[in-house]
């Protein structure tokens, strides 16, 4: 879990690309806290503006752990996307 804290810090510092690479490698194995890794990868993709990959990773985290904080993050991204899509109709 310590490695996940380091990755969380990378994301907070704006190093989303590096965080994604590290998470990609980490997620190849099996370990406790895999839902957290997917959640963090979703956060990194969200920082990059890659909404679809963010949603996919949040969904994977929720599949492993329905109580994951990914549930709120997924809802937040959906709200943002729905807001922007509705806004497009008003132009």
Average predicted confidence as pLDDT: 92
Question: Largest sheet, if any?
Answer: none
Radius of gyration: 14 Å
CATH-level-2 architecture: Alpha Horseshoe
Helix-strand category: mainly alpha
Number of spatially distinct domains: 1
What is the overall shape? globular
Secondary-structure element string? HHHHH
The CATH superfamily turns out to be Tetratricopeptide repeat domain
Number of strands: 0
**Count of helix runs:** 5
Helix content: over 70%
Low-pLDDT runs: none
How large is the share of residues in beta strands? under 5%
Q: Return the CATH class.
A: Mainly Alpha
Rounded to the nearest angstrom, the distance between the terminal CA atoms is 47 Å
Subunit arrangement of the protein: single chain
CATH topology: Serine Threonine Protein Phosphatase 5, Tetratricopeptide repeat
